[in-house]
Amino acid sequence: MPTAVRSTTPSGEERMSAMDTAVPLPGTSSGATAAAPVTLPDTPLAREFPHIASLPRSTLESLAANKDPQYYSALIHTEPQIAALLQQRSDLLKKVRELASRNEEQLRPPLEQTREETQRWFLQATEAEQVQWKEEERRLAEAHRRFAPPALLAQLQQSTAKIYEQSEDLANALVEGRTLPPSLLAAGRSLSSTSAPGSASSLERDAEDLTNADQIQTFTKAFLALRTAYHRRAMIEERWRRDTVRVD
What we know:
By secondary structure, this protein is mostly helical. Helices cover 70% and strands 0% of the residues. The chain has ten helices and no strands. It has helices at 12-17, 44-48, 50-53, 57-65, 69-77, 80-146, 149-175, 182-191, 200-208, 215-241. The radius of gyration is 52 Å and the shape is rod-shaped.
């Protein structure tokens, strides 16, 4: 009895596409016509694999004696369940290829644009690291030096000397009978903790409106504020020099 089986190839897809190619099993003749259906015995082989159980005994014996994997593959692919699974696999592969092609058409342009933007930003970051970051480090080091303990001590010394000179100039102006400089009076009032807050320009305008009667009182307040600030800063400077002031 001739039995038509599907041929196999190394590729699973080509094997499924060539399933209709006739590959004769051992012990069968390709020129014979299909025999009438026969009643199979009630055996486990007939119940689970009726397609194989319906083969002639000679064909089964030839398959058992022949160790060629091609014939075993051809026999397995003639099983309807296997053929259905292979067909499902082929349909799934086709569907996956269609989805992949559609996704590539839709997603490739934005992905290419994102890759170009990422490359551009990466180049800018690399350039900034090589050029701009060195400049930022230099500025940071310069700013750190301004707030280092030696720099703070130098600023304290300068401000202390400036306040001392302002207080001396204010005292000399009073002794010599000159008009009290408004800028010095404003400096003294700005350092006084009891004076009302205000800008330096407003304090100078108030100092220009003073009369001779209250010059002594105004001088006393401004001079006291200047001298208090001077002695306070001089004391801090002295303690700093003796390492009794801690700057974190």
